[in-house]
Amino acid sequence: MEEGSRASKVAAQIRNKLIEGEFRPGEKLSEQQVAQAFSISRNTLREVFRLLTSQGLLVHVPNRGVFVASPDEAAIIDLYRVRSIIQRGAIEAATKTHPALAKMRLLVDEAKCAAAAGDWPRVGTINMAFHRTMVELCDSQRLNDWFELVLAELRLVFGHLGDGAHLHEPYIAMNEALVTTLEKGDIAGALDQLGTYLTKSERGIHAALHRTRHRT
Amino acid sequence: MEEGSRASKVAAQIRNKLIEGEFRPGEKLSEQQVAQAFSISRNTLREVFRLLTSQGLLVHVPNRGVFVASPDEAAIIDLYRVRSIIQRGAIEAATKTHPALAKMRLLVDEAKCAAAAGDWPRVGTINMAFHRTMVELCDSQRLNDWFELVLAELRLVFGHLGDGAHLHEPYIAMNEALVTTLEKGDIAGALDQLGTYLTKSERGIHAALHRTRHRT
DNA sequence: CATGTTATTATTGTTGAACAATCTAAAATC
DNA sequence: GATTTTAGATTGTTCAACAATAATAACATG
Questions:
Q1: Are B81 and A137 in contact (CB under 8 A)?
Q2: CATH number of the domain at A73-215, out of 1.20.120.530, 3.40.50.970, 1.20.120.450, 1.10.150.20?
Q3: How far is B166 from chain A (nearest CA, A)?
Q4: Are B27 and B68 in contact (CB under 8 A)?
Q5: For all residues of chain A together, what is the average pLDDT?
Q6: Which residues of chain B are within 8 Å of residue A151 when distances are taken between CB atoms?
Q7: A62 to B2: CB separation less than 8 angstroms, yes or no
Q8: Can you tell me the distance from the alpha carbon of A186 to that of B48, in angstroms, rounded to the nearest whole number?
Q9: Is B93–A85 a contact, with Cβ atoms under 8 angstroms apart?
Q10: What is the spatial order of strands in the sheet that A28-29 belongs to?
Q11: Which residue, B92, B96, B145, B104, is CA-closest to B128?
Q12: N or C, which terminus of chain A has less Cβ within 10 Å?
């Protein structure tokens, strides 16, 4: 994404608002209103919308408008299926000397500091960085980019669920054990641990979605 | 992608031209000229360009313009890395009763007919459909969509290499053996066969690229 | 002639107004 | 209440214009 152009800046701003849950799931974004709110012309906004729909954050319905993506349980299932395949592939590709593995270790340390400080949102952010870094073990720009889309969609879900969800439950011990297993070169062990994490994480989201649906 | 809107129609037209190699790798697409050629306004074309760049077929350089993607050897390496991870995941997820497996068998039969008729372009198209169908074993819409991008980029490469490349070399026997192995439930065997295919296919492209580079 | 600087030109990025096409909501009719 | 018609709102697209940027051409200097 280009730094500097008006379109790309506004795209980033809207993306952040989406991730922070400032738009409701399924909410319609009116071109007139959004263009005015961000002080850009409607034409430029249409380019922005093309960018954000290609990232899965918005859904463009011809002649009806653009809507905030509303990942449902099927989407969560798909996202975790994608994560499983990509992250398993990353672990199978892992080497003990890969820089991403060292970075994962650093991120575990960072998460411990944040947890000690009680900064749970920060812990959640680091957890995502941990998994993004795991995918970097593949050395594939395309997989990195696509995984970024996965993370964006997950953050959209978290944003919709709000602060009460505690979805950034600390997975620090699990992440640390996983790094240690990889450092030993035990791929099979690491795959097991990843599976456990993904299952637990996915269940957490489904449960939170269920709670939210009950409350509405 | 929307059916019917002007922008989406032109996007499809440009996409086809790209895949067919009608634009040179790295060629700059001038907004004025392309808009005129397709009889659409520059604003609409900019939307189209946003769509096609997000598909990896075009590269947008701020303030300088939009260029035809020019997948180099690094890109081929990445594409095959991606294929390996995704398609291995697909095979690991495969079940004997999955509809995609039956479809893969049908596609092998189709390829045999096309080969008997000497229709090598058709064989190549079926080969791609075979691999796309393999990915459907994952039951993941996102992976299907991303794999479609992989195929588009590969076709862009084939388009650039031209007819002389014979990259649609028949892999019929390999595909047939792979289906048979999967139908037996022999995942490990199928993974081996896939690895062999991917290595051979990738080498073929690198060799063809090398030949073309020598000729220019 | 080679190199650096300046000026000019071409193109991209953006804006705003306008109109066509489509959808949605309100009103009229049965 | 259900259906049809009408009006209003919004999206899709076009056009013209201007600002900003990069590329190219022209000029000056060693």
A1: no
A2: 1.20.120.530
A3: 27
A4: yes
A5: 91
A6: none
A7: yes
A8: 47
A9: yes
A10: A28-29, A65-68, A58-61
A11: B104
A12: C
Cβ <8 Å between A141 and B78: yes
Tokens encoding A174: 């699990």
Q: How far apart are CA B29 and CA B115, in angstroms?
A: 37
Cα–Cα distance for residue pair B153/B18, rounded to 1 Å = 9
For the cut 50, the answer to whether the pLDDT of residue B104 exceeds it is: yes
Contact A96, A140 (CB under 8 A): no
Is the predicted pLDDT of residue A163 greater than 70, yes or no?
no
Q: pLDDT tens across A15-69, in order?
A: 999 988 899 899 999 999 999 999 999 999 999 999 999 999 999 999 999 999 9
Q: Which residue has the tokens 């996202």?
A: A79
Q: Which residues of A are less than 8 Å from B4 in CB distance?
A: 62
Burial label for B76, CB within 10 Å (0-12, 13-18, 19+), is middle
Q: Does B145 touch chain A (CB under 8 A)?
A: no
Cα B28 from Cα B59, distance rounded (Å):
9
Q: Is the pLDDT of residue B1 over 50?
A: no
Question: Where are the domains positioned within chain B?
Answer: 6-68, 73-215
Tell me whether strands A65-68 and A58-61 are parallel, antiparallel or unpaired. antiparallel
d(CA A216, CA A201): 23
B182: number of CA atoms within 13 Å, CB side?
29
Residue B138: which of A171, A84, A204, A33 has the closest Cα? A84
Closest CA to B115 of B39, A90, B107: B107
Q: Give me the CATH topology for the region A6-68.
A: Arc Repressor Mutant, subunit A (1.10.10)
- State both tokens at A74: 């099927």
Residue A88 pLDDT grade (very low, low, confident, very high; cuts 50, 70, 90): very high
Structure tokens at B4: 């019917």
Find the Cα–Cα–Cα–Cα dihedral B82, A75, A136, A178, rounded to 10°.
-120
